[in-house]
Design a protein that fits this description.
di-copper center containing domain from catechol oxidase, disordered C terminus, two-stranded parallel sheet, 7 helices, globular
């Protein structure tokens, strides 16, 4: 069984294996297929169109499967590698171990945001960006420099979102004023998930955010928060459960996969566990209102 660990508790060898697997996927071109997929859906998902990966109830199950597929790709390189998560409620500064030169490298330089240290700096020779929305071929970051996100979400911010008992609400887009999904995604309330993307800056603040390996650690923690919410609210399931225009219902298929439904993604334990499991197992069947 895969165990996803807090990045702050990874050993030196675990960090090295994770980085080496990332570099191998990049060198073989597999990595860029994930960047392209995410950018495609980031551009097509809007509040009024058919939406799957963002601004919709399937935001969480879509990204859960996206991470599973990426973790499988990493394990095709090294079967010992699992996705770590970044608990940004604790590791809240540019001095955190996440940004060390032996792991993800640090923030970008003032001149152009270019990351200059670590294995994903262009100067290291292994991380040229080929899937881009601008002319920059190097990884950029501006940790904590965004006026829209000068600080990362706090534990209090997260607790307030975890307390919401309803998974989602009509009209099932970014304008929902209630519901756990929209508040966690960051369109309402404390701007949780979206704020982290903005805090990192550079490519992380764009549709090609997986160009920054921090993407995977950020979303692994978002996924962990969903698992924690499921435990707290076992009788509050995924909605909608019936066919709804422009929305993936519980038993609908999530593009681009033709065999994966939100219902398939409700229990992460079929695929992996976290190093802390919040008292799992828990009785969760994904049905709304039971």
């Amino acid at each position: 069984m895969n165990v996803r660990k807090n990045q702050a508790r990874l050993s030196r060898a675990e960090k090295r294996r994770f980085v080496n697997a990332l570099l191998t996927l990049k060198r073989t071109g597999v990595y860029d297929t994930f960047v392209t997929m995410h950018n495609t859906f980031q551009r097509s998902d809007t509040d009024t169109t058919d939406r799957v990966a963002h601004r919709s109830p399937s935001f969480l199950p879509w990204h859960r499967y996206f991470l599973i597929e990426f973790e499988r790709a990493l394990q095709s390189v090294d079967r010992r590698v699992t996705l770590p998560y970044w608990d940004w409620t604790r590791d809240r500064t540019a001095a955190s171990s996440l940004w060390a030169p032996d792991f993800l490298g640090g923030t970008g330089r003032d001149l152009d945001g270019q990351v200059m240290d670590g294995p994903f700096a262009q100067s290291a020779g292994n991380w040229d960006l080929t899937v881009r929305i601008d002319e920059n071929t190097y990884l950029r970051r501006a940790l904590g420099k965004s006026e829209r996100a000068p600080e990362l979400p706090s534990r209090d911010d997260v607790e307030a979102v975890l307390a919401l008992a309803e998974y989602d609400a009509e009209p099932y887009n970014s304008t929902c004023t209630s519901g756990f999904r929209n508040h966690l995604e960051g369109w309402r309330g404390a701007n949780i998930h979206n704020r982290v993307h903005l805090w990192v800056g550079g490519q992380m603040a764009t549709g090609v955010s997986p160009n920054d390996p921090a993407f995977w650690l950020h979303h692994a923690f978002v996924d962990k928060l969903w698992a924690q919410w499921q435990r707290r609210h076992p009788r509050s399931g995924y909605v909608p459960t019936a066919e709804t225009p422009n929305i993936v219902e519980l038993h609908g298929f999530m593009r681009p996969w033709n065999d994966v439904k939100p219902a398939d993604m409700l229990d992460h334990r079929r695929h992996y566990r976290f190093d802390t499991e919040f008292g799992f197992p828990f009785p969760y069947d994904g049905a709304a209102g039971r």
